[in-house]
Amino acid sequence: MRPEILFPLFAPARTLPGIGPRLEKLVARLVGTSAEPKAIDLCWHLPSGLIDRRKRPAIAEARDGEIVTMEVVVGHHVVPRSSRLPYRIHVHDATGEMQLVFFRAKADYLTRILPEGSTRLISGRIEFYQGEPQMTHPDHVLEPGAVHELPLIEPVYPLTAGLPLKSLQKAIKAAVSRAPKLTEWQDPAWAKSQRFPTWHEALTQAHNPGTNEDLLGTAPARARLAYDELLANQLALGLVRLRMRHLPGRIVRGDGHLRQKVLAELPYKLTGAQQRALREIDADAMSDRRMLRLLQGDVGSGKTIVALLAMLNAVEAGFQAGLMVPTEILARQHAASLSPLCEAAGVRLALLTGRDKGAKRAEILTAVASGKIDILVGTHALFQDDVAFDKLALVVVDEQHRFGVHQRLALSAKGGVGTDVLVMTATPIPRTLTLTAYGDMDVSKLDEKPPGRKPIDTRALPVERLHEVVDAMQRALKSGAQIYWVCPLVEESDELDVTAAEERFNHLKQLFGDQVGLVHGRMKPTEKDRVMSAFESGDIRVLVATTVIEVGVNVPSATIMVIEHAERFGLAQLHQLRGRVGRGGDKSTCLLLYQTPLGETAQARIRIMRETEDGFLIAEEDLRLRGAGELLGIRQSGLPTFRLAQIDTQGNLLKAAYDDARLILGRDPELETPRGQALRTLLYLFERDEAIRYLRSG
Ligand code: ADP
Ligand code: MG
């Protein structure tokens, strides 16, 4: 249960002054929650700039564009004849004269706050109009005695359309004032060495920057808040890990007879990296601890066979294994490519997807429950409640970046006692980010590609040269090539994606006839399958697609990848897409078609794509170019998003948080000491409530 001391921060934002139903919606959009925004969400919304009102020039000294505060005497009001004209008020001081300008202003209001003959403090931006200084809509108008009420430095916040800065400032100020003083959870020596203020001071300071330096991630207040967040994240992962470790594992030791049969069927030898990864996986399986391992390998590095061999170890030992993948296309493809190998070894493999219903589904479930199936391949359907295994020992999750940490947890719970979990990802994740998402896992890496791969010839062309691409396609098709054509990603709308893909499909069909196929996310699964298998068998030679093909699809005979509007894709995505070709022995080409003019970032992305095929290098560059928030399109990536921490610039803090969390949990695994109690509050503060449930007295 969340501690009472935090209740005011977790109250709805609409309990803050000035936040009614309309602004509540805007605040929700601003802080990126779909649920109702809370006061704490506003506390985490840090300023992006500041307005400095400390300049106090006399009128004669005022310069164009400056934000100033001045003391003036109010003179004549010039009431406009038409409401479309501005209302003007003459003001002066000992050095000169200027005008205050108001549009659509109420005269009675202005005569009340700026009565003729009075002295007033005004603050706002000076503009020169026809050589004369003026100020349009001063931000503040005060009586001289109220000078202390004027915020000399005002925080400026990122806004969203329709949300006035003043309302937001007011609400945030109120939210921050609700922050209680909390018992320190940071290690005192560490906090001191980093010049961290207390949490309460840090929050207050972060919202009241005095200089531009205070806005940087390196400012102590900001660094402190970021570190708090990172530590909460690492602690939560650490608690999950501890719990998994403490659940009894079991020793799964096969005798290798099935593996030998499968290896004998393969037309290739395992790479050194594959062998190394397999040894690491085996060591986990054969220990009495639970396996919780991440297998990282770039596209095409050969993870699937490693997964199969790992699963065979379980089958040899008399257990079952499950392989879960994010899409139906992939599930089918895996089942199709693994079946012949399994058959040769006498291993019973079945496929279960959301599409299997009624009698068919019941039949599979019975076979799984009675142990007649050794390996079950499927989508999420694999882990629905009615799926019961007889003796599940290993779960492999492919292309994990489409699943979140929560799903990973649900999954390992599914297996009950001792189920090992192997997660595979083709998305090269920069080292720093691996910690944030997989700090709870051991990592194996496939850092070597199967031999004989030819480099992919990557080129970039402006879309105006589309006809050249079409000509080249014509020639390539004559010599038997197969081509992927990926259509633009339209932000926020798969409907538009589909329209664009359909248009391109019709265009190419006119040119190349029935050998052109279309696949997109809105098609019925059976229809998708039909198209995909036609492409695999070569009946379709040009496959127009939206990004549904991004993940895992394997058609080795396809050698040309055209990506339209390449400038709209992120680096990691481009890399994933390009990875669909270059899988067979033939030389492959990737054409990046872009719309001019190219922005700086898009230019850099395309340059990097042309320079390297190393997914890890590309991931690091992606992080550098975009910042962690946007990397991989966080929404679909399964990576945690941070409210405060900026992984690209505060990565050093992440490593420290990782070490810190390990140290803390090593000494106080149940968070029972006084510091442990304070750390529980930290977990609640960052809404890592579910991690607390893993504590004995949670
Ligand atoms: P990914 O890691 O992207 O899932 P896959 O497992 O789909 O990669 O493997 C890509 C291709 O490489 C497959 O066609 C597979 O048969 C082949 N492959 C895997 N391991 C080797 C190897 N050691 N030598 C040669 N080819 C291999
Ligand atoms: Mg794969």
Report a brief summary of the structure:
The chain has 25 helices and 21 strands. It is globular.
Topology (elements, then pairings):
Layout: H1 7-10, H2 21-31, H3 39-43, E1 49-52, E2 67-78, E3 87-93, E4 96-102, H4 107-113, E5 119-129, E6 132-136, E7 140-142, E8 153-156, H5 165-177, H6 188-193, H7 199-207, H8 220-246, H9 257-265, H10 272-286, E9 292-297, H11 303-316, E10 320-324, H12 328-345, E11 349-352, H13 358-369, E12 375-378, E13 392-397, H14 405-414, E14 420-425, H15 431-438, E15 442-446, E16 457-462, H16 466-478, E17 482-486, H17 494-512, E18 516-519, H18 525-537, E19 542-545, E20 558-563, H19 571-578, E21 589-594, H20 600-611, H21 615-626, H22 634-637, H23 651-667, H24 674-685, H25 689-692
Parallel strand pairs: 4-6, 9-14, 9-15, 10-12, 10-13, 11-12, 13-14, 16-21, 17-19, 17-20, 18-19, 20-21
Antiparallel strand pairs: 1-8, 2-3, 2-5, 3-4, 5-6, 5-7
Helix pairs in contact: 7-8, 8-15, 8-23, 9-11, 9-12, 10-11, 20-21
Bound molecules: adenosine-5'-diphosphate and magnesium ion.
Describe this structure in words.
This protein is of the alpha/beta class and 698 residues long. The chain folds into four domains: 4-50 and 158-215, no CATH class; 64-149, Nucleic acid-binding proteins (OB fold (Dihydrolipoamide Acetyltransferase, E2P)); 287-446, 3-Layer(aba) Sandwich (Rossmann fold), CATH 3.40.50; 456-612, 3-Layer(aba) Sandwich (Rossmann fold). The chain is 40% helix and 17% strand. It has a seven-stranded parallel sheet, with helices on both faces. β2 and β3 (87-93) form a beta hairpin. The chain binds adenosine-5'-diphosphate and magnesium ion. Adenosine-5'-diphosphate binds at residues 268, 270-271, 274, 297, 299-305, 426, 450, 554, 556, 583. Residues 268, 270-271, 274, 297, 299-305, 426, 450, 554, 556, 583 line the site of adenosine-5'-diphosphate.
